Amino acid sequence: MSGTDTGVQPRRSGLTRRQKRAVSRGVQYAVFVAAVIAVGVTADWGRLQNQFAQPDLAERMFPDIITLALKNTVLYTVSGFVFGLALGVVVALMRLSSVGPYRWLAGIYIEIFRGLPALLIFIFVGVAVPLAFPGTEIPGGTYGKVALALGLVAAAYMAETIRAGIQAVPKGQMEAARSLGFSHARAMVSIVIPQAFRIVIPPLTNELVLLFKDSSLVLFLGVTLEERELSKFGRDLASETANSTPILVAGLCYLLVTIPLGFVVRRLERKAGEATK
Amino acid sequence: MSSTPQNPPPTREIEVRGLHKSFGDNEVLRGIDLEVGSGEVVCVIGPSGSGKSTLLRCVNLLEEPTRGQVFVGGTEVTHPDVDIDAVRRRIGMVFQQFNLFPHLSVTDNLTLPQRRVLGRDKAAAAKAAAENLRRVGLSEKADAYPASLSGGQQQRVAIARALAMGPQVMLFDEPTSALDPELVGDVLAVMRMLADEGMTMMVVTHEMSFAREVADRVVFMDGGVVVEQGDPARVIGNPAHERTRHFLSRLLDPAMADVENVEDAQNADDAARKSP
Lengths: 277, 276
Hints:
The structure holds two protein chains of two kinds.
Chain A: H1 17-42, H2 45-52, H3 55-60, H4 64-95, H5 100-115, H6 118-132, H7 141-168, H8 171-179, H9 184-214, H10 230-241, H11 245-275
Chain B: E1 12-23, E2 26-37, E3 41-45, H1 52-59, E4 67-72, E5 75-76, H2 84-89, E6 91-94, H3 106-118, H4 122-135, H5 151-163, E7 169-173, H6 181-196, E8 200-204, H7 208-214, E9 217-222, E10 225-230, H8 232-237, H9 242-251, H10 259-274
């Protein structure tokens, strides 16, 4: 691009910059509309509707899909989040420790659990833990297992977020607390971590959205009818009726939660941005 | 020049002996000996990088000395077995950047440390908080958050927070350096009040008029050593050492410094620029 364009001299194309932009925008719109029309015309809507949008089938799913499946999804997510948050804080503090082995352990943990697919962790928890500790039940039954599996994965991500949050709190805060007679641990708990949490609430809420979707992996643990969450519930009904409408309805239920949560995240981010000004 | 042994202060609140501090290869303090008597106000002046803030931070062990001893109220702070948290309760510290806790209201900034560290109950902590906010003239800001206060107000709250802990010694690390010029006066007035009340104070500052009027003793540091110390009028008005004169002439309005000093300063500047 020539840096001497002043808008005064006509260019070779004979178009002003504004006209060029309008033409470029017009082409983009045209391509998009053409693509939508092409998909719309070529897709077999009748068959699609037959397979995915049977109103009577959808009706049959209520109220169980809300009172049972959505409720379980929320319970799995929240229990996984709480366990993951607690573990994440511990791992983050280990990562920041002045004790070398703590830092290495935390680093290894984070690399392993961020590097593995969540599905493998679920299978590991479902199979390896009962094998390793025969006769001992994970407290909370399926809920405990899910909290463990989801939490193990989430902790690895949250630990890095929380570590960054703690490091974003100015060093003077710790110094002020120490000079007032706080011990290092007490200063962390009373002064630094509360401020770090303000910084990391938006990314942690994002993590909650991710966990909400990952809770669908519960179906690899094997659950009772009463313990089914949205994905398992939808899939069971779909195979039972040989129709995919339940999958679509289950998907809409996920969006019912994730879209408002996404909205909350953006609001929190905006508020955090204003607060630091 | 060392402090006069014929006329020792009644009790030594702070005593520093042979203090050395290095950051890596950089030796910031090269053997400091200093005493601050009970009720005495000592201002530490000197060019930036002279080690004066590091000295202050070694007194309450925010920096770990490399060598030497520090005593506060008779307790050896540098002893490996000392309960440093207990010692720090007796030492108030005020920072250049205020360091109020932004997630707490002004009152909570004052009460939380009292309750967590001193174990005071809610009522006693609130009483001490109100009392000390009144002393710094900010009672009406009790419910405000730090972000809504001016720099000068924040620094006065920081002083009140330190005072609420009932310290025997107060350390001030360039308390007015981050303030707009018109806000400096209020903070200095509070410090002057404390000095008048007999608080033992060690103040790192560039405010020469404050040092001259309030300090019992001025300590000039350069290159990690105490170059000279003594009566403020003499150290600031008629320094015995060339380095002190040089520093003061650069700090004060050049029009007020005599011509010789200015020329010396310029020569020294030139020399400093030539040397690698």
